[in-house]
Write a structure and sequence with these properties.
The protein is of the alpha+beta class. Helix content is 30%, strand content 35%. The chain has one domain: Lipoprotein localisation LolA/LolB/LppX (outer membrane lipoprotein receptor (LolB), chain A, Clam), CATH 2.50.20.10. Helix 2 packs parallel to helix 4. The chain starts with a helix and ends with a helix.
């Protein structure tokens, strides 16, 4: 009898421990299609699975067969980033400051390359040099002509407008918002209040995460801007404030070229174990700073 009681107690304790190591969260599969006219069924090879739970967010890229190729994990509790490479079976982990330092190192390298290019431009005929400088400004906004000085990056005026349009996307009701830059339509955001994934993320901790990157960017040479806003991690940004209206189940870009459509295929609220935000057993541990400096981002 005592043996049976001990067994029941052990089962209860085990169940409690398993529950304590898991949190309710969201698992969302998304696809990205190039070209605004691509049909919904043409999902293409660009597929991701986003998992959000307890101030952690994991974004996994899948190949056409559905196997994971790479993943980024943002842990707001530890204020850390991890990159998993499933093909090389490696995981690189570091604090957000490591990521910011890597950006600074990359920018320093780019600045050195630009100085070499400027020396080459000096020896070109004026007409050819002008064409090269124009091309550099188009592809590298921070690039400056030989002997010039870097100017601050212009920030467009953002405006968000509700349209009143509604639709059902991935089985969830959604409402359309238009994001305008300097008065021009740049993005359609279809948001669903039924998907409450963003409630898994503490906005204050996310803001602190963003500020660490922004502080590092302010030390970068040349063109300066808010890296947190650029990465979509600025809670004061008008687009970020839309998170209170729901999760983006469809994002239509109206930028240069054909644009793109980013759309949710499935979304499910379910228990997410903490092991989901850890590297698979046996993967080689690396420093995120070293990996990014080698160009492994």
């Amino acid at each position: 009898m005592q043996s049976a009681i001990r067994t029941v107690v052990c089962v209860i304790i085990l169940a409690f421990l398993l529950t304590a190591q898991a949190d309710a969260g969201w698992v969302i599969e998304q696809v990205t299609r190039s070209g605004g006219t691509a049909p919904p069924g043409n999902v293409g090879p660009d597929r991701q699975v986003v998992i959000m739970s307890a101030n952690r967010m994991k974004t996994t890229s899948l190949d056409p067969s559905g196997k994971p190729t790479a993943a980024w994990i943002m842990d707001l509790e530890a204020q850390s980033l991890s990159r998993i490479d499933y093909q090389r079976q490696t995981v690189a982990t570091g604090k957000v400051q490591d990521y910011a330092d890597s950006m600074q190192a990359a920018r320093t390298q780019m600045t050195a390359a630009m100085k070499q290019m400027q020396q080459v431009l000096k020896d070109m005929p004026p007409e050819q040099r002008q064409k090269m400088e124009q091309m550099m400004r188009q592809h590298l906004p921070s690039a400056t002509p030989a002997g010039g000085t870097a100017e601050p990056c212009p920030e467009p005026k953002l405006e968000v407008r509700p349209t009143g349009q509604t639709a059902e996307i991935a089985g969830y009701p959604a409402a359309r918002y238009d994001v305008l830059e300097d008065g021009k339509l740049r993005t359609e955001l279809w948001l669903s209040k039924a998907i409450t994934a963003w409630k898994e993320i503490d906005s204050e901790k996310l803001e602190r995460f963003s500020q660490e990157i922004t502080k590092a960017s302010q030390r970068l040479p040349g063109c300066r801007f808010d890296w947190g806003k650029w990465a979509g991690l600025a809670p004061n940004d008008p687009v970020w404030k839309l998170a209170n209206e729901g999760y983006p189940v469809r994002t239509v870009s109206h930028g240069p070229g054909e644009g793109s459509i980013h759309e949710v295929v499935t979304a499910e609220s379910r228990t997410v174990p903490l092991t989901e935000f850890q590297a698979p057993p046996g993967f080689k541990q690396q420093s995120l700073k070293d990996v990014l400096r080698r160009g492994g981002s």
